[in-house]
C-alpha cells in the first residue's frame, strides 16, 4: 500500500497527453505450448465485515421486505451465481484479527454485540457468523476461505474453529455445531493464519510471525478428507523480505502465502498520492486515469518478484501465491461513512480489472487464487445496493466476460505494439491473455488501456484450429462512465462484431478504453 514517486515535471503537475501514432499491435497466442490450468479461484471474491457489505449487501435477515433466501438477499445471490463465483474469503481483512468465532454461533438474538473497531466503530451484531457464511457459500456454489485470528486469537481458538467446521465425530464441538443446526461438516477449502500481520493483524516482524505460524500450523487439523489448504499471511506490495522470511521458515508447512496490492492513482500527485488523498472514483481526468493504470499494471512485476523469492525455497511451485486482496482504492463517496470504504465503479475500474485478470493468467502456475476487494458495496465492488435496489458495476461485467477462463488451460501470449504515453511515462497500450476453455473453444481477452485512440490488433493463433469468432465488448464514451441506480445499465457488455478471422489470424480494431473477450471455435 505504497504511493509512487514522480518526476519533477509530474510533481509540478505539468502533465500533457502524448497522442498515439496509430501503430498496430501484434498479439501472438502460443496454442502449441499450453501452460497451466487456470485455477477458477483466480476469480475469487472477498467479503469482509466492513460497511454495508455483509449487512445490507448480503444479509438482510429472514424478516426483511427485501426478497431473500433464508436471510440472504436474492438479487445478490443470483448475480453471484450468474458469474460462477468460485470462492469467497471471509470474515476479513483487518476484521479477522479481532473476530472471535464463538460470538457468531447459536441463536442470533443471543449473540454478543461487539464493536467493529477497524471499520467505522459501528456495532457488530454477529448475526452473520460461521453458519451463515457457510450456508451462503453453499447457496452461491462457491468454495470457502476462512481467515483465522492470530492478532487477538490463539492457536486453540483457531484449532477449535476448524474442528467445529470440519469434524464429523461426536466431539463436543461437532455436537455443538449440530445443536446449532448443521449436522454434516462443511467443506473448508482454505484457512489463513492471520491477515496483514505486518499491520492491522498485529504489527509483527516477519521472523516473529513465522515462528507463530509454525506453532499454530501444528495444531490446525481439519478432519480427514477435508481439502483444507493453509495460507500464511503474506507481505504488502513490494515487501519481498516478508515473503523471503516466511518462505524460509515455513515453506514445508503451508500451501500458500498471500500478497496484497491495492492500486491508487498516486502517480503524478506528489503532494498527495497517499492514503489520505487517493482521488475520486468518478471525478478524474486523464492524469488520474494513467496513474491508476501504472499502479494496477505493477501487479505483474510484483508477482514476478515474489514468485522468484518463492522459487528459492519452492522451485516446484507447490506453495501458491494467493493475491487475496487486490483492486482499486479511492476516496470514499462523499456523504458516506469514511470507515465504510464505499466508492463508485467506472469504466476505469473495468479496465484495471481486466488488466489484473490477464496478469494473473500469465502467472497462473504460481497464482492459484486471487480475491478482488471487495464483493458488494466496498472498494472495487462488483455489486452496489441501495435498500431494495441493486446494480452490477463495470467490474462485475468484466468478471462475467471472463468467467469461462475459470479452469481453462492457459496459452502463453506475447504482445508487441504501441504504447499508451502520458507525460513522461508510457505503458503497453494492449493487455492480453488467452486460454482453451473447458468446452474446447479458445478465449482471447484484449484490453486497450488508451482512453483516446483505437488500436488495430492482429492476433496470431499459433497451433490452434479456428472456424469462427464471436465476442463481447465493454466500453463507453467517457472514462468515468458508470452505472447508477437511476441508470443501472449505462455500462454493460454488448456483442462485438469488430473481429475478423482469416485462417488462424484475427484482425481486431480495439476501441479506446475497451475490454473485449473473443471466443474462437
Ligand atoms: O480491504 C480493506 C482492508 O484492506 C482489509 O481489511 C485489510 O486487510 C487491507 O488493509
From TrEMBL:
Residue span, Alpha-L-arabinofuranosidase C-terminal domain: 324-514
Stated family: Belongs to the glycosyl hydrolase 51 family.
Protein name stated in the entry: non-reducing end alpha-L-arabinofuranosidase
Species name: Niveispirillum cyanobacteriorum
Keyword Transferase annotated: no
GO molecular function: alpha-L-arabinofuranosidase activity
Organism domain of life: Bacteria
Catalytic activity: Hydrolysis of terminal non-reducing alpha-L-arabinofuranoside residues in alpha-L-arabinosides
Keywords: Carbohydrate metabolism, Glycosidase, Hydrolase, Plasmid
Subunit structure: Homohexamer; trimer of dimers.
EC nos: 3.2.1.55
Classification via SUPFAM superfamilies: (Trans)glycosidases, Glycosyl hydrolase domain
A Pfam match: ASD1_dom
InterPro entries: Alpha-L-AF_C, ASD1_cat, GH, Glyco_hydro_b
GO biological process: L-arabinose metabolic process; polysaccharide catabolic process
Amino acid at each position: 500500500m505504497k504511493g509512487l514517486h514522480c518526476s519533477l515535471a509530474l510533481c509540478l503537475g505539468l502533465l500533457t497527453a502524448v497522442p498515439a501514432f496509430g501503430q498496430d499491435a501484434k498479439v501472438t497466442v502460443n496454442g502449441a505450448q499450453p501452460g497451466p490450468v487456470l485455477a477458477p479461484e483466480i476469480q475469487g471474491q472477498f467479503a469482509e465485515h466492513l460497511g454495508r457489505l455483509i449487512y445490507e449487501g448480503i444479509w438482510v435477515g429472514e424478516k426483511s421486505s427485501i426478497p431473500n433466501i433464508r436471510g440472504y438477499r436474492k438479487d445478490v445471490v443470483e448475480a453471484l451465481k450468474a458469474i460462477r463465483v468460485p470462492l469467497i474469503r471471509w470474515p476479513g481483512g483487518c476484521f479477522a484479527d479481532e473476530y472471535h468465532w464463538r460470538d457468531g454461533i447459536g441463536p442470533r438474538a443471543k449473540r454478543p454485540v461487539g464493536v467493529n473497531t477497524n471499520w467505522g466503530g459501528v456495532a457488530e451484531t454477529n448475526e452473520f457468523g460461521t453458519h451463515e457464511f457457510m450456508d451462503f457459500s453453499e447457496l452461491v456454489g462457491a468454495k470457502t476461505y476462512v481467515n483465522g485470528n492470530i492478532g487477538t486469537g490463539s492457536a486453540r481458538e483457531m484449532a477449535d474453529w476448524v474442528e467445529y467446521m470440519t469434524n464429523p465425530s461426536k466431539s463436543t464441538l461437532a455436537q455443538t455445531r449440530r445443536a446449532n443446526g448443521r449436522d454434516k461438516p462443511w467443506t473448508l477449502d482454505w484457512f489463513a493464519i492471520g491477515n496483514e500481520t505486518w499491520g492491522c493483524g498485529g504489527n509483527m516482524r516477519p521472523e516473529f510471525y513465522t515462528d507463530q505460524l509454525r506453532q499454530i500450523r501444528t495444531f490446525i487439523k481439519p478432519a480427514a478428507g477435508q481439502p483444507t489448504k493453509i495460507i500464511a499471511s503474506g507481505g504488502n506490495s513490494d515487501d519481498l523480505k516478508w515473503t523471503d522470511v516466511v518462505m524460509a521458515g515455513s515453506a514445508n508447512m503451508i500451501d500458500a502465502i498471500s500478497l496484497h496490492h491495492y492500486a491508487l492513482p498516486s502517480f503524478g500527485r506528489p503532494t498527495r498520492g497517499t492514503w489520505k488523498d487517493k482521488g475520486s472514483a468518478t471525478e478524474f481526468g486523464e492524469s488520474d486515469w494513467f496513474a491508476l493504470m501504472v499502479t494496477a499494471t505493477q501487479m505483474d512485476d510484483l508477482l514476478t518478484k515474489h514468485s522468484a523469492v518463492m522459487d528459492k525455497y519452492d522451485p516446484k511451485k507447490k506453495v501458491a501465491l494467493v493475491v487475496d486482496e487486490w483492486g482499486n482504492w479511492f476516496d470514499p463517496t462523499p456523504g458516506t461513512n469514511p470507515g465504510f470504504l464505499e466508492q463508485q465503479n467506472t469504466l476505469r475500474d473495468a479496465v484495471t480489472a481486466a488488466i489484473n485478470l490477464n496478469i494473473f493468467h500469465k502467472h497462473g502456475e504460481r497464482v492459484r487464487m486471487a480475491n478482488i476487494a471487495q464483493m458488494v458495496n466496498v472498494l472495487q465492488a462488483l455489486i452496489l445496493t441501495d435498500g431494495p435496489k441493486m446494480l452490477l458495476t463495470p467490474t462485475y461485467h468484466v468478471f462475467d466476460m471472463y468467467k469461462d477462463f475459470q479452469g481453462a488451460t492457459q496459452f502463453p501470449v506475447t504482445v508487441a505494439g504501441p504504447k499508451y504515453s502520458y507525460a513522461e511515462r508510457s505503458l503497453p497500450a494492449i493487455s492480453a491473455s488467452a486460454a482453451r476453455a473447458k468446452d474446447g473453444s479458445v478465449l482471447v481477452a484484449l484490453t486497450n488501456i488508451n482512453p483516446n485512440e483505437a488500436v488495430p490488433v492482429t492476433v496470431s493463433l499459433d497451433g490452434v484450429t479456428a472456424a469462427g469468432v464471436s465476442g463481447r465488448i465493454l466500453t463507453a464514451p467517457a472514462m468515468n462512465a458508470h452505472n447508477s441506480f437511476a441508470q443501472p445499465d449505462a455500462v454493460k457488455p454488448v456483442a462485438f462484431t469488430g473481429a475478423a478471422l482469416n485462417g488462424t489470424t484475427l484482425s481486431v480494431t480495439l476501441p479506446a478504453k475497451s475490454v473485449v473477450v473473443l471466443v474462437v471455435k
